[in-house]
Amino acid sequence: VADSRLGALLSIEHPLLQAGMGGVAGPDLAAAVSNAGCGGTLGLYKLDGPTAAELVQATAALTRRSFGVNFVPEVVSPGHLATQVEAALEASPPTTFFTFFGPPPDEVLARIRAARRRTLVQLGTIAEADRAVAAGVDACIAQGIEAGGHHLGSSPTQELTAELHRRHPRVPLVASGGIESGGQLVELERSGADGCSCGTLFVAAAESNAHEDFKQRVVAAAAADTVVTETFAIGWPSRPHRVLRNRSVEERETLDSSFIATTTIAGRRYPIPRFSAAVPTSRTEGRVGEMALYCGTSCEGIDAIQPAAEIVEEFLATYA
Ligand SMILES: Cc1cc2nc3c(=O)[nH]c(=O)nc-3n(C[C@H](O)[C@H](O)[C@H](O)COP(=O)(O)O)c2cc1C
């Protein structure tokens, strides 16, 4: 385990986390990233307790290193979140860390602390960070607007990182949004980051559950092909999100929300309306290219679908 503050906190070798991504980051990806010495993270999104427990166990079976489990409190009820957290606590090894998209209720943080696990909360504003620090989180993840997926604030990654570090210098800080190289992490460390979290970089990993077509589009895209929009609001309203510009974004005024695809989640088949927040996975069929293709400006530096271990190796080659 490395000598970095983040490495020591989470029992990982390199200060690089893979963001928990609903539908995309399953056991194979999380375990592959952890086995490469970084913080692989399983995305639980809206999954029920038994499915969450099954995936946590499957991840633990694939790696002996520490990994994370990610929750999105605002897309589930407080009761559902508590069920997911209990399932993850019960099914996971003691080194497992818990990451949240936005601050969870204080009771949830207290429960996890009582179980002696680490918590990291991703935030987009200073006000949210102040609250999370007061509630006793172990680390903050500062999310900037370069990020792929839903946005918690409206500041660029470097700016928010620097400001959070000035306010809370003793709290370990992870930068998130638009990062795809070790060189960028070196820069962000100058602003006070202890490490970084990458989502898009791992969407195109061989082990990711993203649909093949989605992976190829991320590989082909430049930063200018991404856009921040509120197009894909069904199932997750009121949060702008960065996606690849596609037909649904461009023609949203004239298109309707009829079904454009079907997907399988935990053995059940669901129809997907256009404008759904659901991502296309390897279990999705239909007009995949017109679905929500969450993607950060970090796609600029992604040129191939590669095993996670190679992605980590190339990242570390520019981190010196
Ligand atoms: C496909 C995709 C799915 C995401 N799903 C989640 C999620 O379920 N939970 C979460 O905390 N963040 C999620 N995020 C956001 C990441 O936590 C992070 O803010 C973002 O990926 C950082 O920017 P980057 O994509 O440029 O690395 C997702 C991002 C992407 C690209």
Keywords for this entry:
single chain, 320 residues, alpha/beta, eight-stranded parallel β-sheet, three-stranded antiparallel β-sheet, 12 helices, 14 strands, 18% strand, binds flavin mononucleotide
Helices and strands in order:
Blueprint (H helix, E strand, L loop, with lengths): L4 H6 L5 E3 L8 H9 L5 E3 L5 H14 L5 E4 L6 H14 L5 E5 L4 H9 L4 E5 L2 H9 L4 E5 L5 E2 L6 H11 L5 E4 L5 H9 L4 E4 L1 H4 L8 H9 L5 E4 L11 E4 L2 H4 L8 E7 L2 E6 L10 E3 L21 H10 L3
Parallel strand pairs: 1-9, 2-3, 3-4, 4-5, 5-6, 6-8, 8-9
Antiparallel strand pairs: 7-11, 10-11, 12-13, 12-14
Helix pairs in contact: 2-3, 3-4
Flavin mononucleotide (FMN) binds next to α9.
Give your account of this protein's structure:
This protein has helices at 5-10, 27-35, 49-62, 78-91, 106-114, 126-134, 157-167, 182-190, 200-203, 212-220, 247-250, 308-317, and strands spanning 16-18, 41-43, 68-71, 97-101, 119-123, 139-143, 149-150, 173-176, 195-198, 226-229, 241-244, 259-265, 268-273, 284-286. It has 320 residues and is an alpha/beta fold. An eight-stranded parallel β-sheet has the order 1-9-8-6-5-4-3-2. Strand 12 (259-265) and strand 13 form a beta hairpin. The model has no long low-confidence stretch (mean pLDDT 97). Flavin mononucleotide (FMN) binds at residues 19-22, 24, 43, 45, 70, 72, 101, 122, 143, 146-149, 176-179, 198-201, 203, 279, 294-296, 298.
Structure at a glance:
The chain has 320 residues and is of the alpha/beta class. It has helices at 5-10, 27-35, 49-62, 78-91, 106-114, 126-134, 157-167, 182-190, 200-203, 212-220, 247-250, 308-317; strands at residues 16-18, 41-43, 68-71, 97-101, 119-123, 139-143, 149-150, 173-176, 195-198, 226-229, 241-244, 259-265, 268-273, 284-286.
